[in-house]
Amino acid sequence: MNVEPSRPAPSAGGDAPSDRRLHVIPGGLPQTQPGADTPPRRPRPFSLQDASSSLQTAPLSLLMVDDHAMFRQSLSTVIRHIAPHAAIAEAGSCAEALELLGTGCPFSIILLDLSFQTGPTGLLAIDVIRERCAATPIAVVSGLDDTDTMLGAIDHGAMGFIPKASSVEILLHAMALVLAGEAYFPIDAVRNGITRGSRPTTPRPGERPAPDGVSAWGLTPRENDVLALILKGRANKVIAAELVIHNEDTVRKHVSSILRKAGVRTRTQLVLKWFELMHGQ
Questions:
Q1: Which own/partner contact pairs does 47-54 have at CB distance under 8 Å and 24+ positions apart?
Q2: In the predicted model, is pLDDT for residue 175 greater than 50?
Q3: How far is CA 75 from the centre of its chain?
Q4: What pTM was computed for the model?
């Protein structure tokens, strides 16, 4: 399978390249199984053949939120190619989306644009949808394809980011990933975000610095469970509910431990570092 090469990220002190559009390659984040006593394995490349077994007959229900009817129609065609039995609902604004969501959040995943003529727009659109459906995965499909927008989407809880300018082949693979429950981000933007935003953490007294490889982070089984949900954009409250952790402070302690072991300071940097380690070679 041919993939688009990613551009090298600019240095931390250098100027950003004039063309900041993202060049995307297929790839997804692995998922841990609850109670696993070993770190997640490096995933193999994800293809349409991989998606077919789980998506061809999957009872998938998704909500597409975009104010361009023609794009919704085109994206529906892509989705039907991957998941022919998917139930697709459409909304032209966040307000329409909230009406469809109601109080039960009946969708498997929400595909969300970030540019709307009326109502909440930009990263606020993610916040509005997440406030109503905190546990429903949100993947951004946007024409705002710069690195800062992607980093902001991750920070606001998106579990995937697909630029609208992607080629048909890339769009197929990226959409197959997110519909199958995997996270997806453009690898060149991930590298760019790591270069610009990473800062070394100071180990505690007597503690060795965080290792470079994910498998060497030394996460506990419960930290692996928490990490899997962080990578899906879950907030601490939702993580506590899904893992049946009765005290949200316990989740915060797990998150802090994961960040320290990974050698990063924020959740966004954790996602970026994880993805780069999985797909940056």
A1: 47/1, 47/173, 47/176, 48/82, 48/172, 48/173, 48/176, 50/176, 50/180, 51/82, 51/83, 51/176, 51/177, 51/179, 51/180, 52/82, 54/180
A2: yes
A3: 19
A4: 0.68
Instruction: Round the CA-based radius of gyration of the chain to a whole number and report it.
Output: 18
Angle of CA points 25, 135, 245, to nearest 5°: 115
Can you tell me the distance from the alpha carbon of 160 to that of 150, in angstroms, rounded to the nearest whole number? 9
CA dist 206 and 183 (Å) reads 35
- How far, in Å, are 103, 183, 215, 231, 279 from residue 271 at the CA level? 30, 10, 15, 6, 12
- CB burial of 32-70 (b: ≥16 within 10 Å; e: otherwise) equals beeebeebbeeeeebebebbeeebeebebebbbbbbeee
Quick check: 24 and 170 in contact, CB under 8 A? yes
Query: pLDDT, tens digit, for every residue of 101-110?
Result: 988 889 999 9
User: What is residue 37's predicted lDDT score, i.e. its pLDDT?
Assistant: 46
Q: Is 247 exposed, middle or buried, given 0-12, 13-18 or 19+ CB atoms closer than 10 A?
A: exposed
Least confidently predicted of 149-153, 182-186, 226-230 = 182-186
Average pLDDT, the chain: 76
Contact 48, 177 (CB under 8 A): no
